[in-house]
Amino acid sequence: LTRLYGPITALSNVQVDVMTTLVSFERVIEVLDLKPTVADVPDARPLPEDLATTASVELDDVSFRYPAASEVSLASLESVARLQTEVPGTTLEHVSFTVPHGHLVALVGPSGAGKSTISALVARLYDVTGGTVRVGGQDVREVTQASLRDAIGIVSQDAHLFHDTIRANLLYARPGATDAELEQALRRAQIWDLVSRLPDGVDTVVGDRGYRLSGGERQRLAIARLLLKAPPIVVLDEATAHLDSESEAAVQRALAEALVGRTAIVIAHRLSTIREADSIVVLDRGRVVEQGTHEDLLAARGLYAELYETQYAPTAG
Ligand code: ATP
């Protein structure tokens, strides 16, 4: 019964959230599994079963413009709200890069460069206006959205939790998980110590009206959820919010766990993540301006070197 009513309670919370604080679009998608602007084609097929070993992601000459307000369905509340203040233009232009299976690609670039938009297109929250996004070699427009959602785990900056128990928040990612599996995921996400100290343990109610977790703790719980879901592909938006150094180190360790063996696209803000990336894609105003490893890009003395000197180097972590 809790499983039935849990999502309904959560749904009403989220609506209030959306109205009042304009939560990120991914967050609403992640929580509610909304399918607002795209639909399965009649002969859509699921992604291949062997994705765990073949999960590449490819953007092939992708261009994208956010739909104008009149084209947006009512479900995509954030888009509607943002369009009231933004003039839609071309957000991405001829973007191409490949993330081979098991690789980590870091997206970096100034605010508004299009990093979050790329992560939304990989999960097919919108359809591209030009070019093709492929997952495991398949055009994402030709596969079922259910299989795409199963294949991709998104951890956004401000992880949303249902107003429900920690257990319910985790089971949402994998309904059949045992207590031992929950504990293992919480341990790997560096949050078990905290959870086990709470009077009600995993049955503690969290969220705005429950036990208040800090930003870093919420993110670690979201990582535990990701570890339970175990998707072959991870899209991660690293937090920019300042975390205290202990929390920061714990989040870093949890992220490292979450990325092992997966194909990953990380909107990276930390130098440590960027340096570990197999490749760094540097975006500026919707275009890929540079691509390479940390060393290659520093030597090129372009936008990356500039960002490095002004943003990453002083906070090197
Ligand atoms: P930041 O680092 O600040 O998060 P970003 O590189 O992730 O920026 P995006 O959020 O992808 O950039 O935004 C790229 C452009 O698209 C910006 O001009 C932004 O204002 C616009 N944009 C983003 N989301 C929407 C939306 N839902 N509707 C309309 N325009 C949008």
UniProtKB/TrEMBL annotation:
Q: Name one GO cellular component term.
A: plasma membrane
- Decide whether keyword Lipid biosynthesis is in the record: no
Q: Where in the cell is it found?
A: Cell membrane
Determine if Transmembrane is one of this entry's keywords.
Answer: yes
Q: Where is the signal peptide?
A: none
GO molecular-function terms, A-Z: ABC-type oligopeptide transporter activity; ATP binding; ATP hydrolysis activity; mating-type factor pheromone receptor activity
Q: Where is the ABC transporter domain?
A: 75-310
How does the UniProt record describe the way this protein sits in the membrane? Multi-pass membrane protein
Swiss-Prot/TrEMBL keywords: ATP-binding, Cell membrane, Membrane, Nucleotide-binding, Transmembrane, Transmembrane helix, Transport
| Family label | Belongs to the ABC transporter superfamily. Lipid exporter (TC 3.A.1.106) family.
Question: Under what name is this protein listed?
Answer: ABC transporter ATP-binding protein
Provide the species name: Cellulomonas pakistanensis
Full protein: residues contained: 301 to 617 of 617
